[in-house]
Amino acid sequence: MGEDRRIAIIAVHGVGHHQAGEASHAAADLLSTQGYSTFVETRVRVPVRPVPSPGHGRTERRWWQFLDEGADTLAEAKTEAVAKTEAVAKTEPAPERQERMKDLSIDYMTEQLQSYYPRDKDLVYDTAYLCAKRLDPERPAEVHVFDMYWTDISRVSTAGLRMIGELYQLLFYVCSLGRKSLEFACAAYPQDRSWEAFRACHSHAERLLTIWIPGFNLAQLALGILIVPQMLYAMPHSLGATIGIGVTFALLVLGALVILRRHLTGTAWPWLFPLTAVASLIAALGLPRLFGQWMPLLFVEMAWAVGAGALVALAKIYDRRRPGASEVSMMIVAIVAVILAAVAFVEPFDRSNIWLLAVYAGIWLYCLLNGLWSAFIALAFLSTLAAYFVSWNVKEPEKRRAAWTANLSLVLPGFAILLLNLAIWWGVVGLGENILGPRLKEQIEAILTISTPWSFAALLGIAVGCLVWTAWGLVPSVLLEVWPRKLAQPAPALGRSLNAFFWAARASGEILRWIVIFAIPVSMLVVEYFPGWIPSDLVQGMQRFSNQYTAWIGLALVTIIAGPGPLRALGLGLRTAIDVAIDVANWMRLHPVDENPRARICARYYSLLNFILARKYDAIVIFSHSQGTVISADLLRYFEKSVVPSRPEGLADIPVYLFTMGCPLRQLYSQRFPHQYGWGRDEPPTWPGLHPDPADLRVTQWVNAYRSGDYVGRFLWHSSRDVSAWSSTPMEIGARREVCIGPGAHTHYWDDTALDIAKELDRLVK
Fold first, then answer.
1. Angle (CA) 330 333 334, round 5°
2. I need a surface site. Which of 10, 168, 300, 387 has the fewest CB within 10 A?
């Protein structure tokens, strides 16, 4: 009797926060129900190597392109396609375009991977695998279950920073999903200039929302540092102001030294601290004598420089993820410095009314912010018109899906950022009354009252109603997440209910979009230019209500988006949708080019595969859930399609089985990014569809399992109108096998409510 076959199982978790080893332990628990010995855990430290790819780097940007975040591969592909179609024909046949876009998705992934090399904590993947033997003497096998953990790369892992980090990722990264969809659409239709106009409107609006508007908001917040000179000058003796001038001067010098540290020799560095201290003492005593009555203005500018330094430092970090943020921050700093100087020369100014200088500067910044928000809304409106133009009365559904993705990914973050901006500022006024003083508080309240639309409360009510409507559509699935055994219902009924939910969610998204681009600006314009149309008592009452409750509504939004622990339950299914959006945005983004999440995750996955292949297993089973299925499919497809040999040595020589659960490749990725993930979608008259094709991934068999109420991913090869999609009988042809394991939602694939999954996994251990 020969040795037992040795099978490696790679467990890949899905969206959201997970613990290291959680997926492999869950897979082992499932196998334990099918007759396996006790699992024994062994820890290993796997050296991480990047996925082989052409390492030529990105094209150098010109100085005027500092805001260009586009992918080189997409721009080059569009240029080449234009040249080709101009030489041959004005229109490109659809089959040729589809094949070209398949190759282009590989080229884009190459650009994501090519500049990454592991460093620091990425150098080693510290993990463990679980070993056991199957007890059935008729089917002896030894299984080793490995864990492919990636949450720590895609998410902020520190609990204290998680809330801020997730909010930041959601608001500032989700916009890029629409831009990416448009970039691929422009490459797909290179001769159609309307797509390029659509992309331009969307890109400019996105930059306003994610770079310029946050920059000016932070600048307004940084103006709060001007309270320090005011408080120091208000002291009964001059010692406070003298010390403040010295400390401010020291901070500026130390900041300059940090910037110039690379140009300073090692012998000079230790002496810089005492020299800075002496220079600060001289400045504290000498500058007031030198500048006399202009010293308060100089102190204000110095204090602003300290706040500006913090602003630029934050922007420098952000710049790696959003190219151009650093340059924009320096422009904003210069603008504020000029405003402060101009206000000081125009208005009566001395040490007793520095707070007034901050108020006037804040008013100027408020006017600029109003202009930026107006420009954003105008560009969002133009994007909507462009979307209707490019997708109206067209045969290709891909155009409509790409256009809707772009607009929704722009407007929803825009609405959330507007609400949070107002909520934060009203919160600052409410909490900082003792610090601000009554006069400054009144001035800021007056500015915020003008900034807060009188109709905001009513429109927020409509928006909340839309969100509740959307959440209500998910209630059957959400209840099954909480009580999977008690509330089970027929799989076909739950499947049809979820199909109806998707249409309701689409309608809710449209309502929210028109609130932002139409209802808010029109309500403000009507009151401003046609005051008699709406009763003044109604406007004043709604204004007071909007002012009082905007901060609380904003706090509730933050709680739903990123609240920890029990607070997550308040979001119902929307919280899972937010988790999906964050992980998808991180998987798709290109920046920072030398350590974007996809490159880091793929390097870990590639290295784990190399480690497994070196141990000479007889077969590999990739057991993946949710976003983990897309990660696995994308990487396997890259191994097969990349122009550079990147497949781990020996992977082509053994059977590889891909087992996906709740796979969003069709329901989410190909739906929302049709030109990048068109290879993952088909609408067959009968099962199975041609795409996704297991041969593109070079897998021996692709098994897809799903629940009928899974709002993230369900079937891959059924038609959307196929009632047999809810059948619990597995369907199998060639390398495709698909089964609905009954009613349920997205999370219960790993536990004892999914014994069909355990049986299917055991079947693949062969």
1. 90
2. 168
* Residues 6+ away with beta carbon under 8 Å from 682: 689, 690, 691, 717
Residue 87 has pLDDT above 50, yes or no: no
Instruction: Read off the pLDDT of residues 36-49 as tens digits, 9 standing for 90 and up.
Output: 999 999 999 999 99
Within-domain flag for 586: no
Q: Are 287 and 248 in contact (CB under 8 A)?
A: no
- Residue 565: what pLDDT? 52
Give the residue from 517, 515, 543, 513 showing the smallest Cα distance to 528. Answer: 543
Q: Do residues 452 and 543 lie in contact, with contact meaning Cβ atoms separated by under 8 Å?
A: yes
Q: Which class for 21: exposed (0-12), middle (13-18), buried (19 or more C-beta within 10 A)?
A: buried
The CATH number of whichever domain residue 137 belongs to comes to: 3.40.50.1820
**Where in 477-635 does DSSP place strands (E)?**
619-625
Picking from 45, 31, 15, 19, the residue whose alpha carbon sits closest to that of residue 130 is 31
- CB atoms < 10 A from the CB of 12, how many? 28
Assign 274 to helix, strand or coil. helix
Task: Supply the range of the domain harboring residue 46.
Answer: 5-54+93-161+592-716+731-764
Is 90 exceeded by the pLDDT of residue 761? yes
Averaged pLDDT for residues 602-608: 97
Task: Answer whether residue 297 is part of any domain.
Answer: no
Find all residues with CB under 8 Å of 434, minimum gap 6, and list them.
none
Distance from the first to the final alpha carbon of the chain: 16
Distance CA 280, CA 299 (A): 13
Residue 734 burial (CB < 10 Å; 0-12/13-18/19+)?
Answer: exposed
Is 143 in contact with 765 (CB distance < 8 Å)?
A: yes
The whole-angstrom separation of Cα 765 and Cα 141 is 7
Residue 702 belongs to some domain of the structure? yes
Give the whole-angstrom CA distance, residue 277 versus residue 274.
Answer: 5
How many separate domains does the chain show? 1
For residue 169, the number of C-alpha atoms closer than 13 Å in the C-beta half-sphere is 25
> Quick check: is 319 in a domain?
no
CB contact burial 550-585 (16+ within 10 A = b; e otherwise): bbebbebbbebbbbeeeebeebbbbbbbbbbbbbbb
The DSSP code for 358 is H
- Catalogue the long-range contacts made by 193-200 (C-beta closer than 8 Å, 24 or more residues apart): 194/386, 194/389, 194/390, 195/390, 197/386, 198/383, 198/386, 198/387, 198/389, 198/390, 198/403, 198/406
